[in-house]
């Protein structure tokens, strides 16, 4: 089947994903000199010898190296303070991104499949700028493609190319694979080295007992960041009268003026959200849900800020 004509928000293009590199400075995904990322605790592994990265300032103690005294803080507080550093370390960053038929939908600014692709590209460019090895796995209803993590633009472009091809191949009549996410997670467990940082971009509705078990197993040897993708219509039905939905050739008609129906629909969405929250708490991993309703950069900035809110002066 030929891909549908490219249209912003419905289909993604390689040029759009490459363009995401210009937005890396707008959101602090990984640490930069003088700026600590909220994900810094997940971004330390085997020492690679890249030097030292500033961590914090504390009161000077006997035995501290006088060369690390922070003279500005010392002058301001009239008490000697010293800078603390941690060794910069490196780990492979593996971006798992879903491009299945369940994501080929959107009532907000763009389709969920496009939002997932843009988020994957932004994270990939941020990791590359941080001089990390980047790879990933693009999975859909019938197949998956993995890219071995490398510290090169070619590796990231290879991942983005696979992502665009999977996105362009999406169509509304595809038969969804209920276990596509679980299969992708099992493959990730086979290929990932312990200590990898795994970024997971998937549909909010894709979490099942099987995939939840696979995530728990994967979290034993890797660090995870969960980014479930949703659309406003996943959470609430508008009071718009009769709405028709199709799936697997079947037609479903819903009367959205039925208040009980809308309440039951909203409750199912709340249950899904709570399940993700419980899973993240159980595994001790960051949960950064994304919606097609809002700008990607603004959402990521707010979500990362919520992990470690700044103290009020």
SSE order, one letter for each helix or strand: HEHEEHEEHHEHEHEEHEH
Helix/strand structural class: alpha/beta
Overall spatial form: globular
**Strand line-up of the largest beta sheet:** 5-4-3-6-7-10
Radius of gyration: 22 Å
Strand-residue fraction?
Answer: 15-25%
Which architecture of the largest domain per CATH? 3-Layer(aba) Sandwich
- Fill in the CATH topology of the largest domain: Rossmann fold
Low-confidence region ranges: 1-6, 43-53
| End-to-end distance | 58 Å
For the record, the CATH class of the largest domain is Alpha Beta
Tell me roughly what share of residues is in helical segments: 25-40%
Number of strands: 10
What value does the average pLDDT take? 83
Strand count, sense and barrel status of the largest sheet are: 6 strands, mixed
Structural domain count? 2
Question: Helix count, per DSSP?
Answer: 9
Full CATH superfamily name of the largest domain = von Willebrand factor, type A domain
Please render the helix and strand layout as text:
Blueprint: H1 14-19, E1 47-59, H2 71-77, E2 81-89, E3 93-98, H3 112-129, E4 134-139, E5 144-150, H4 153-168, H5 180-191, E6 197-203, H6 209-218, E7 223-230, H7 232-235, E8 242-247, E9 250-255, H8 259-283, E10 290-291, H9 296-307
Parallel strand pairs: 3-4, 3-6, 6-7, 7-10
Antiparallel strand pairs: 1-2, 4-5, 8-9
Helix pairs in contact: 3-4, 5-6
Would you mind describing this structure in some detail?
This protein is an alpha/beta fold. The protein folds into 2 domains: 14-30 and 90-307, von Willebrand factor, type A domain (Rossmann fold, 3-Layer(aba) Sandwich), CATH 3.40.50; 49-89, no CATH class. The chain contains 9 helices and 10 strands. The strands form 3 sheets. A 6-stranded mixed sheet has the order 5-4-3-6-7-10, sandwiched between helices. Strands 1-2 form a two-stranded antiparallel ribbon. Strand 6, helix 6 and strand 7 form a beta-alpha-beta unit. Helix 3 (112-129) packs antiparallel against helix 4 (153-168) and helix 5 packs parallel to helix 6. Mean pLDDT is 83; it is low at 1-6 and 43-53.
């Amino acid at each position: 089947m030929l891909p549908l004509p490219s249209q912003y928000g419905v289909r993604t293009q390689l040029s759009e994903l490459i363009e995401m590199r210009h937005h890396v400075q707008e959101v602090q995904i990984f640490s930069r000199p003088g700026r600590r990322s909220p994900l810094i605790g997940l971004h330390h592994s085997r020492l690679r010898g890249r030097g030292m990265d500033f961590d914090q300032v504390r009161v000077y103690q006997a035995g501290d190296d006088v060369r690390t005294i922070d003279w500005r803080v010392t002058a301001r507080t009239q008490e000697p303070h010293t800078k603390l550093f941690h060794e910069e370390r490196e780990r492979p960053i593996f971006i798992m991104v879903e491009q299945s038929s369940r994501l080929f939908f959107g009532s907000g600014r763009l389709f969920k499949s496009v939002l997932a692709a843009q988020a994957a590209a932004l994270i990939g460019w941020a990791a590359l700028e941080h001089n990390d090895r980047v790879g990933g796995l693009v999975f859909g209803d019938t197949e998956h493609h993995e890219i071995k993590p490398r510290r090169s633009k070619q590796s990231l472009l290879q991942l983005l190319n696979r992502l665009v091809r999977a996105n362009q191949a999406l169509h509304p009549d595809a038969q969804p694979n209920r276990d596509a996410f679980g299969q992708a997670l099992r493959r990730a467990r086979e290929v990932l080295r312990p200590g990898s940082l795994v970024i997971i971009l998937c549909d909010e509705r894709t979490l099942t007992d099987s995939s939840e078990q696979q995530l728990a197993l994967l979290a034993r040897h890797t660090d995870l960041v969960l980014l479930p993708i949703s659309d406003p219509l996943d959470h609430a039905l508008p009071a718009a009268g009769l709405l028709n939905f199709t799936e697997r050739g079947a037609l479903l008609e819903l009367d959205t003026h039925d208040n009980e129906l809308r309440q039951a629909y909203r409750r199912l969405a709340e249950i899904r959200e709570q399940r993700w929250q419980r899973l993240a708490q159980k595994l001790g991993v960051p949960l950064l849900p994304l919606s097609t309703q809002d700008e990607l950069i603004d959402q990521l900035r707010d979500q990362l800020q919520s992990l470690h809110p700044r103290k009020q002066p």
